[in-house]
């Protein structure tokens, strides 16, 4: 199963757009959390409990982390395509793919950390104050 | 063995002569200002931005003189307000951002072995706009009319014409004008990085400087439009009394703060990243090795670019927003420290692993990283909301931001100046003076700003013209003043070094033994950029291929000649830099200067409420732009293809998504869509702050109804589909049907634009009464104005079709306006349901 997915992932095209999927997932998650909190707090009042907000933020977080994980998996698979010898900085298809995959993988790690940071901060609140 | 024509020195000399003639700068007292070459325009840009920097620095010295002693009376409160407002605004809008654009304009084509950026006249236009707007804003202080509301211009103080004079208008309109030119530069730089790289330079080989520029230009595209949207609302309030920020009539000053800081925080990184990018070039040169962790730097640049958009509310921690919202922004503010630190560690690691050649530019790099890191540490502190509540609006923040900006922007730029001066002028600056200046500035910055942490914690607020002796910060302030003047003395040494006449002979080419392409620049005055456009197979070709320089110079790569007497550069594909086109570049012209003057007229005349004159200036601007486009863009080449060397023939014209023009349109519209999204954000912002929004129906407050907004949406979407159909028909050579379809699409768009205004008009929405009618009018007018621009484009294409400049083969214009229509359709498909249907749901 994993092997098959791995092989499929290696076939996918990597571009500048795919590279920014993980940070875009962070951005979407951040915006969604912010808007959710802003609207909840404005419409329900500062002292209303935010239990439901916690659940929804949790849902957003899971979704964002799934997207980031998928992107990271594809990047990880693409990074392992065999080809040119190290240090992988030649003008070849393999090295270009490898670079985009490496950058995507690292952006995925950063984005995952940033998503968790943002989500974790919500847990400290029982209401909007 | 076949004989390479490039082996013949006579052939090479003839080619070089032709290239020289084509790329020669116009001469003469007047004509020289019509130049559009990036070398020349970039140099003007740098000098102008540096002059504004010195001016804004002098304002700071006046402030420090005033604050040297308690209860001082050197300048009064009104002048002091103007001084700090203009100091901050100029440093940000007239120095930091333009300086990035200027250096990128100078260096980027050379780094990419392109002969120029893809739209040289746009660069020149941007420069002239910057100069006119900058002189207008900076000059206002000599008339006591400078803006005085702080560089962030918070309403309601600034929207009240009696509280703040004409200064606020000068700020809004003068700087809006410059923001437009910044976006133009961003478009130019993005297309330059993506489409004008040399063959073989795939994404993984791009110089790190180009990566940073790409990221920063994209950030400008998303950061500046919210501010422009805010400016529009702000000026509508000041000029027409539409109450967007007036709480009495349903507005909210906080909306301005949101829009300003959505711009303002990324802005910090917009000015920091391109300066640190210079280090990404300096460090490998003086470590004499490849940069370690290339992908880590890309991660840092892209990661910082994204995260910096999630920080804006940390400037608003004390505005009473819900704690849970503050927490999100606090978390993101801490997260951004990760990528910022990554790049600093990569620089240190590269130096560690290399054989360091100690030099003046490297001294600046080391010193500025130390200062920047101190600023970063206090940044981590103020990112924590409870700490910020204590430090907010105190001198602690002044200390923090100056450490960041001096360490992250000013000193790196000076380091870059010492590094690149030999490239630009063939002369080397004095190492001795450079080091003296460094130590003066390094000591000055610390003596000036370190005590401010304490004066802030002791309770000294920002932006006060004086303080009582009893506060006990007199000694700290005196130290700050001494430090500021020391810093200025260092800057004076640099100015001296720059203007000092030099008699020694020109330096050798590639003086520092660097590995990247910008050092291909030749020592005699050649404007062509590179002798031939090379095939690049590594990140540091000058190090990795000992023969590289000779082959470039002997014209053994692409485009070694200018047979047709035209300025040309190569266009390549985005990811793999496969050559796809020879792009003909526009040469010197008076049009960019004239257009900038006319557009400047619109903004400046509006400031003084001379609406008729401003309208005339606007019409002249439009006429000039149309003339510019008609005579200078999308021209049909005399032959479809051209031989570029090494057995390769490339088309002279391409259209659609592979062409530079298409990308420019796409990128511009991304920025435009961001401004529009900010206005939609405003609509929903008002919805969240009001218990009932839209307000209960009353005369002047009714909504635009459902019918007209829906009709407008349908008509505009029909116009969009018509434009697409016209494009498809044209591509298939069915010219008559295509023209008729385009006429129909134009009429549909026209009807849609009018229907959009009919809703608020026929329902009698009074925008001066309440914020609800005002925001509806703004959204409807935004779409209608875009429809109007779309109609001009449709008519332009029709005219082009009849004039024979738009043919099924040469259909770039039609393809580009379709991109515009996609975005117009998107904005209509969201705006009209929002203003037409949302009130039904909300009630």
UniProtKB/TrEMBL annotation, chain A:
The keyword Transmembrane applies. The chain crosses the membrane at residues 26-44, 56-77, 97-125. The keyword Membrane applies. Keywords: Membrane, Transmembrane, Transmembrane helix. This is Transmembrane protein. It comes from Sphingomonas oleivorans.
UniProtKB/TrEMBL annotation, chain B:
PROSITE patterns: COX1 (PS50855), COX1_CUB (PS00077). This is cytochrome-c oxidase. GO terms for cellular component: plasma membrane. Pfam families: COX1. The chain crosses the membrane at residues 42-63, 83-113, 125-146, 170-194, 206-228, 268-287, 294-314, 326-350, 362-387, 399-421, 433-454, 474-500, 585-604, 610-630, 662-686, 706-726, 738-762, 774-798, 819-838. It catalyses: 4 Fe(II)-[cytochrome c] + O2 + 8 H(+)(in) = 4 Fe(III)-[cytochrome c] + 2 H2O + 4 H(+)(out). Residues 17-549 form the Cytochrome oxidase subunit I profile domain. Keywords: Cell membrane, Copper, Electron transport, Heme, Iron, Membrane, Metal-binding, Respiratory chain, Translocase, Transmembrane, Transmembrane helix, Transport. Belongs to the heme-copper respiratory oxidase family. Its main location: membrane. It is a multi-pass membrane protein. It comes from the Bacteria. The keyword Disulfide bond does not apply. GO terms for biological process: aerobic respiration; electron transport coupled proton transport; respiratory electron transport chain. Its EC number is 7.1.1.9. It is found in: Cell membrane. Pathway: Energy metabolism; oxidative phosphorylation. GO terms for molecular function: cytochrome-c oxidase activity; heme binding; metal ion binding. It is an enzyme of class 7 (translocase). InterPro entries: Cyt_c_oxase-like_su1_dom, Cyt_c_oxase-like_su1_sf, Cyt_C_Oxase_1, Cyt_c_Oxase_su1_BS, Cyt_c_oxidase_su3-like_sf, Cyt_c_oxidase_su3_a-hlx. It comes from Sphingomonas oleivorans.
């Amino acid at each position: 199963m994993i092997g098959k997915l791995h092989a499929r992932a290696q076939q996918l095209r990597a571009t500048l757009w795919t590279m920014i999927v993980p940070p875009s997932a962070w951005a979407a998650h951040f915006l969604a959390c912010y808007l959710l909190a802003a609207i909840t707090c404005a419409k329900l009042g500062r002292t209303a409990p935010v239990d439901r907000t916690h659940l929804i933020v949790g849902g957003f977080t899971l979704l964002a982390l799934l997207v980031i994980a998928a992107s990271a998996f594809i990047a990880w698979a693409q990074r392992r395509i065999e080809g040119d010898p190290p240090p992988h900085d030649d003008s070849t298809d393999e090295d270009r793919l490898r670079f985009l995959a490496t950058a995507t993988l690292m952006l995925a790690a950063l984005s995952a950390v940033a998503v968790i940071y943002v989500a974790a901060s919500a847990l400290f609140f029982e209401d909007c104050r | 063995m076949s004989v390479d024509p490039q082996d013949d020195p006579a052939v090479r000399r003839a080619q070089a002569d032709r290239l020289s003639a084509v790329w020669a700068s116009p001469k003469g007292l007047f004509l020289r200002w019509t130049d559009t070459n990036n070398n020349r325009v970039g140099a003007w840009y740098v000098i102008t931005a540096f002059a504004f920097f010195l001016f804004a620095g002098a304002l700071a010295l006046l402030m420090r003189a005033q604050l040297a002693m308690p209860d001082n009376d050197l300048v009064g409160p009104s002048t002091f307000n103007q001084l700090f407002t203009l100091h901050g605004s100029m440093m940000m809008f007239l120095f930091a951002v333009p300086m990035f654009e200027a250096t990128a304009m100078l260096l980027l084509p050379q780094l990419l072995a392109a002969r120029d950026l893809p739209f040289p006249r746009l660069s020149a236009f941007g420069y002239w706009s910057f100069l006119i707007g900058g002189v207008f804003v900076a000059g206002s202080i000599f008339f006591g009319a400078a803006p005085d509301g702080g560089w962030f211009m918070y309403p309601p103080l600034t929207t009240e014409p009696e509280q703040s004079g004409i200064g606020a208008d000068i700020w809004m309109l003068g700087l809006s004008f410059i923001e437009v030119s910044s976006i133009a530069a961003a478009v130019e730089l993005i297309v330059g990085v993506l489409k004008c790289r040399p063959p073989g330079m795939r994404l993984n080989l791009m110089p790190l400087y180009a990566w940073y520029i790409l990221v920063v230009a994209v950030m400008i595209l998303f950061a500046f439009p919210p501010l422009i949207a805010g400016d529009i609302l702000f000026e509508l309030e000041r000029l027409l009394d539409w109450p967007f920020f007036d709480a009495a009539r349903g507005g909210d000053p906080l909306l301005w703060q949101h829009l300003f800081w959505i711009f303002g925080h990324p802005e910090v990184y917009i000015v920091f990243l391109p300066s640190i990018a210079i280090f990404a070039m300096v460090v490998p040169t003086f470590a004499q090795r490849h940069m370690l962790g290339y992908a880590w730097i890309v991660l840092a640049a892209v990661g910082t670019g994204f995260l910096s958009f999630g920080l804006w509310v940390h400037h608003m921690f004390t505005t009473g927003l819900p704690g849970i919202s503050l927490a999100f922004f606090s978390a993101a503010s801490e997260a951004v420290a990760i990528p910022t630190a990554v790049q600093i560690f990569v620089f240190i690691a590269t130096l560690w692993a290399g054989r360091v050649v100690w030099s003046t530019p490297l001294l600046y790099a080391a010193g500025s990283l130390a200062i920047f890191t101190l600023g970063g540490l206090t940044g981590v502190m103020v990112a924590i909301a409870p700490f910020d509540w204590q430090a907010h609006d105190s001198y602690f923040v002044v200390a923090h931001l100056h450490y960041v900006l001096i360490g992250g922007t000013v000193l790196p730029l000076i380091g870059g100046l010492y590094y690149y001066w030999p490239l630009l002028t063939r002369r080397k600056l004095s190492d001795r003076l450079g080091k003296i200046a460094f130590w003066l500035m390094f000591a000055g910055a610390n003596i000036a700003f370190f005590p401010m942490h304490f004066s802030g914690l002791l309770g000294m607020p920002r932006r006060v013209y004086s303080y009582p002796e009893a506060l006990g910060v007199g000694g700290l302030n005196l130290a700050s003043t001494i430090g500021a003047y020391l810093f200025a003395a260092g800057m004076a040494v640099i100015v001296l070094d720059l203007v000092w006449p030099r008699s020694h002979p020109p330096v050798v080419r590639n003086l520092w033994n660097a590995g990247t392409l910008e050092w291909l620049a030749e020592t005699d005055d050649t404007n062509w950029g590179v002798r031939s456009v090379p095939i690049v197979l590594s990140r540091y070709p000058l190090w990795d291929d000992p023969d590289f320089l000779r082959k470039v110079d002997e014209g053994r790569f692409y485009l070694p000649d200018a047979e047709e007497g035209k300025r040309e550069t190569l266009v390549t594909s985005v990811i793999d830099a496969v050559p796809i086109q020879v792009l003909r570049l526009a040469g010197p012209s008076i049009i960019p200067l004239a257009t900038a003057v006319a557009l400047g007229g619109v903004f400046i005349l509006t400031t003084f409420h001379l609406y008729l004159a401003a309208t005339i200036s606007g019409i002249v601007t439009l006429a000039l732009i149309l003339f510019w486009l008609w005579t200078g863009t999308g021209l049909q080449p005399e032959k479809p293809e051209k031989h570029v060397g090494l057995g390769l023939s490339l088309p002279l014209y391409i259209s659609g998504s592979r062409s530079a023009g298409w990308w420019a349109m796409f990128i511009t519209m991304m920025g435009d869509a961001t401004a529009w999204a900010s206005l939609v954000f405003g609509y929903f912002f008002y919805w969240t702050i009001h218990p009932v929004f839209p307000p209960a129906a009353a005369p002047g407050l009714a909504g635009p109804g459902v019918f007209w907004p829906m009709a407008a949406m349908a008509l505009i979407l029909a116009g969009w589909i018509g434009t697409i159909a016209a494009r498809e028909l044209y591509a298939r050579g069915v010219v008559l049907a295509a023209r008729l379809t385009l006429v129909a699409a134009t009429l549909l768009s026209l009807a849609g634009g009018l229907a959009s205004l009919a809703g608020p008009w026929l329902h009698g929405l009074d925008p001066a009464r309440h914020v609800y009618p005002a925001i509806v009018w703004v959204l409807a007018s935004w779409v209608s104005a875009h429809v109007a621009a779309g109609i001009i484009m449709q008519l332009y294409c029709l005219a082009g079709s009849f004039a024979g400049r738009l043919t099924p083969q040469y259909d770039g214009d039609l393809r580009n306006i379709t991109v515009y229509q996609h975005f117009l359709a998107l904005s209509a498909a969201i705006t009209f349901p929002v203003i037409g249907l949302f009130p039904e749901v909300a009630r």
